[in-house]
Task: inverse folding
């Protein structure tokens, strides 16, 4: 996989995730230019995190702090896990 192919795939996966966030009350912005990451935040709680996309053993994975993870194969579950990590009490 060439660098540009890798970056293009990463950006596509992050954009697909970002497209679902508003439906769950979250906002986001792509940052990082040539090395894209997704800055996601919960407008009500003020919690925020950076979401990284990386190829894993079973396909593309998303990672965020503190200890969050999800897969590109199950974006709805990934969005739910990301929202849960930014909800009050988590």
Result:
């Amino acid at each position: 996989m060439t660098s540009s192919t890798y970056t293009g795939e990463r950006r596509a996966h992050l954009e697909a995730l970002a497209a679902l966030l508003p439906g769950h009350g979250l906002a986001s912005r792509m940052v990082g230019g040539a090395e894209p990451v997704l800055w996601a935040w919960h407008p009500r709680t003020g919690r925020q995190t950076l979401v990284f996309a990386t190829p894993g053993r079973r396909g593309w994975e998303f990672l965020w702090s503190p200890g969050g993870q999800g897969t590109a194969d199950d974006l709805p579950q990934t969005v739910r896990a990301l929202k849960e990590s930014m909800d009050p009490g988590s």
